[in-house]
Structure formats: C-alpha cells, structure tokens
Amino acid sequence: MQPSSVPMPELPATDGARLDVIAPDASRRVVCISESPFLIGRSGISGNHLQLDDRSVSRQSAAIVSEGGRYFLEDRGQRNGLFVGGKRVTRCELKDGDVIGYGAEASYEIIFRAAQAGSSIQNLLTRMQKITTVDSAPGGLGKLNLLLEATMLLHSQLPLESVLGTMLDHAISITDADRGLLLEPDSSGALQIRLARRSGGVPLPSAGLSPSQTALRQALDKKSAVVTEDLAQADAKFQEAQSIVAQSLRTVIAIPLYAMARANSMETSLHSERGHFLGVVYLDSRRPAAFSKLERQILEALAVEAASILDNARLVEYERQRQRLHQELEIARNIQQALLPRGFKDFPHLTVSGVNIPCLSVGGDYFDVFPMKDRRTAFLIADVSGKGLGAALLTTMLQGALSGMTMGADPAGLFNHVNHFLCEHAELGKYATMFFGILGTDGDLEYINAGHPSPVILRGDEFVEPMTESSFPVGLIAGAEFKTSFMKLVAGDTLVLFSDGVTEAADPDEELYGVPRLREALAGRHDAPLDHLQKAVFDSVEKFSRGASQADDITLLLVRYRAASKAAMP
Questions:
Q1: In the predicted model, is pLDDT for residue 537 greater than 90?
Q2: Model's pTM, two decimal places?
Q3: Integer distance in angstroms from the first to the last C-alpha of the chain?
Q4: pLDDT tens per residue across span 289-325
Q5: Residue 317 zone, left/alpha/beta (φ > 0; ψ -120 to 50; rest)
Q6: By the 8 A CB rule, do 185 and 279 touch?
Q7: 204: helix, coil or strand?
Q8: Percent of the chain with pLDDT over 90
C-alpha cells in the first residue's frame, strides 16, 4: 500500500486571552495578557506590559483588568480617549473580537481575543459530529472516548510534559503502534526528540532512537500526514530506507504539527494558511496495520489538539522571555537614569538644567555635570551610535571614564585614550559624538567637540556664531587627535546643548525639525528660567512632530553662565 497524504484540518486558535496588535505600518504581533492589571502605554515608559511606539499614545494609556474570568478595558489617562468598536469608553467589558483604537489616523489598533479553551473543545465536538463511521468501526466508541480524554487533558492545568506524554500514549493506543515520538525543531531547524514513549505508557530514552527520515521528509515536504499501513507494499524509497530496514518496520505514521496562522483581517479566517511549524508526531510498528477512516480522523483530531497546546506553550514561553527581557531592560533603564545628574544645584558661576528621553527602554544619549578641583565646572553631552542596550552599555562606560576629570585629568589626553580603547575594540561597532566643556568663574570655556552638533549660544536677543572647531566622534577613527579649544562667555550667556534627536525629529511628512526651528523656539527667551526654556523647546518639537513616533533619543542640556561678581555672592 502506498503512503497516503492525509489532509490536516485547520488548527484552532490558541488558549489564553491575548491581543492582536496592529501597528501603523500594518505589521502585526500577538501579545498574551499575562497579568492583571495589564498596562498599556507609550514605548519606553516604565511599568507598561504593552509598549506602543506612537506619540499619539499617552505614557499611561490603558489597562486590561481580569475579574472573575471577564476582561475589562479601563482608560488610564489616554489624552484623546479610548475607543472600542468606534465608541469612546472609560471602562467597558471586552468581548472576543473587540477592536480597541485611539481615535487617530495611522495609529495602533488592538484586537482582543478571549480565552479559547471552550471554543477549542467545541471545535473538537463539531469535528466529531462529522465522523460517520463510528457504528461500523470496531471499537469506535472506545477510541472516541480516548480522544475526549486526551483532549480534556491537553486543556488541563497539568504540567506540559505530562500532558504531551499522555497525548502520545493515546496516539499509540489508537494506532496500536509500538512506540511514539514527539519531535521539535531546534534553532537550526533540525528535528530533535522531545518525548519518546512505547506502548503501555512506558517512557523511552531518546538516545539511539532512529525515526524514519524518509517518512519525516515526506511529511514536511507535503505539509500533511504520511501514513503507511504496510511498508512491504510501499514504494521502493520506503522499502530501501536504512532505518526502516534496520528496525524491520512495517507501519510508519508522521504527522506535522502547525500553529494557526493569524488572520489578516478582523474576522478570523476559517481557511487561513497554516502558520509556524511546531514539530512532528511520529509513530511506528513492526506489524502491518489497517486504519479505518474513523481511526485516521481521530488521529488527525488528536494532532490538532496537540498542535494547539504546543502553540500555546510556545506563546507562553515567548511571553515569559519577553517579560524577563523587559525586567532586565527595566534594571538597565533604572541604572542609566540613576547615573544622570538629579536635582541640579546652583554652581557658583552657572545654573544648569537637563533632560533625557530615550526612544526605547534604554538609550544611547547621556549628559553630566560635575565640579572640578580648581573651582571650574565640567559639563558634557554624548550620543552613542545606535539605540538600545548596546548603546546604553557604552554610555555607562564613557560616563565612568570621563568621571576621571574630577581628579584633574587632561581632557584631550583622556579623549585620546578613550578613542584608542574603542578603536582597539572595533568589534563593539560603536562610536560616540560628544561635547565636553569646562567653565571657569571668569567665563573662560575650554571645550572639545567630538563630532557633536554645535551648541546654540543665546546671548541677549542674539545668537552667537556656532563653534566651528570640531573633531571626529570618539571611537570612529583610529589615531584621531583631540585638542581643546577656547572661547569667552559673558554674563547671561546660555548654552543650549542637544542631541540630534531634537533637530532630526520628523513630522508625518518626514520633514526634519532642524536648527532654525530650535532657534525660533529659543528666540526672545534669553532671560527665561531654564526649566521654562527647556519646556519651550520640547513643546515646539512635539507640536512640529504632530504625533509622529519618536525615532531617536532626545537629550537637552542648558548651561547659563553668571557673572564673576555674582559668583562671589552667597
């Protein structure tokens, strides 16, 4: 008898309430609702379980709360309101398929998917109603009972390995096989044995087991079940397969398992293509077999249920990994934010204000202000190439290295040393633009500009010409020489240092904010308090962006020099 390809039925949705998140660029992802309350807000804000990279989403936007098996959406401060099915809500119960929106064009849509265990059982019962051979098949009712038992176990709260082992035991009983294997792909895609059982519910060690590679390849190529009832009558490639000959096999079954593909519309497609490949259920025997239509249908249904629970386990593990990563990023974020100067004190000859807003959980920008031994004060702003954790690690290293300035180190010598170190470790693939200045009580400013945008200097109602002296970014060019430059500040001068996340902020039409708009925001504000000046810049950037997502870290550092005579005053 020839191997037959048995069509597999469509897989049901996975268990567990979840969200289908559709980004403005139409990309999609699935997020499990892992705890209650489940917090939703703008990307990069601490404590949000679902972070959305969209400025139209408030930092603390919404929460989904579980109460007695029901889920409720709560508005937690979304400035433009939350919408479910197009209607604005402050709190409402969510039903399967509800669409959560933000009332803005080109923003996120979130589709709520209720827990599917009950519907999975209902799908199974529906499939069973279509089986018409129960009365004519020997032991048909008993085998259907095995399927029901297996299905209930698959959706129980028992440990996953126990559930999958029971599933294999039932598959072996239904097919009267000698052994059953569950194989899963590793990171390279090669199939590895996860579980192995023999008839009677006895576990088998996976070492030395040799499933038929021919059957596995054919099942994967066809993406459907391969069932051979008598290998003695199969085609030559099965009869000549080394593993089959060596083990004297007569019956082989290989059923590939697939997750359900996520539908591309709000309505779940009943005919959607199979999604992620999960593994293979493999059974074999040294005896020939003759499978009835009922037995094939039961085996297919059991494989569908196994795929459902495996897919759910995969999503749960993905969510656990995501949460672990989120916790690690939160730790990194807290460390990074703790290293930024807080509660700026008034230095004898200058006042300072600064803020850093990373576009991700952690960023590659930072700034610092610290006193020197000779009554001068150092300040700096830096922008490491790239974003995320790698950039954040380098900012921490640079901050530690530059803190040596408090011991009176030579600025140019230290920059040359850091540049040499980074270039020697080119595998890091990172460099940084920096502006470093040391301001004395007499207004003398010694500075190094390592490829960073020149500060805007506000002097009365005018802007001082930008500082043209500049060198390469630190860590970019081996052998680059850094030298200090000098200029004189007068009382009331305000230096506005910024990262390119300010001037390269884009609007929805991808036009950049630019230095001219920054000057417009500063114009006429030379005597404004620094926190007011800072707010004016951020308000200007936000108004210009018109809700476009933040694509880079934004950092602003303002330094205002006070006259030497005022520096002597208490």
A1: yes
A2: 0.54
A3: 101
A4: 767 677 777 777 777 777 877 777 777 677 677 777 7
A5: alpha
A6: yes
A7: coil
A8: 22
H/E run at residue 165: helix 160-175
Transcribe 66-130 into DSSP letters: EETTEEEEEESS-TT-EEETTEEESEEE--TT-EEE-SSTT--EEEEE---HHHHHHHHHHHHHT
- For tokens 């398929």, name the residue: 97
- Taken in order of first residue, the domains within the chain and their CATH numbers are 4-13+117-318 (3.30.450.40), 18-114 (2.60.200.20), 340-567 (3.60.40.10)
Q: Are 355 and 369 in contact, with CB atoms under 8 Å apart?
A: no
The dihedrals phi and psi of 558, each to the nearest 5 degrees, come to -115, 130
Write out pLDDT tens, residues 90-105.
999 998 888 998 877 7
Mean pLDDT, to the nearest integer, of 318-344?
72
Q: Which residue from 557, 29, 515, 525 is spatially nearest to 276, judged by alpha carbons?
A: 29
Residue 72 and residue 100 in contact, taking contact as beta carbons nearer than 8 Å: no
Number of C-beta neighbours around residue 247 at 10 A: 17
Q: Mind listing the pLDDT tens digit for each residue in 408-448?
A: 678 888 899 888 888 887 767 788 899 999 999 999 999 99
C-alpha span between 24 and 16 (Å, rounded):
25
Any idea which residue has 């923003």 for tokens?
Answer: 107
Structural contact between residues 367 and 381, judged by C-beta atoms closer than 8 angstroms: yes
CB neighbour list of residue 416: distance below 8 Å, 6 or more residues apart: 480, 481, 482
Structure tokens given for 197 = 């059982």
> CB-side exposure of 112: number of CA atoms within 13 Å?
22
Helix 140-154 to helix 117-129 angle (10° resolution) is 170
Structure tokens at 423: 């270039």
Two tokens, residue 490: 């007068």
Distance of CA 329 to the CA centre of its chain: 11
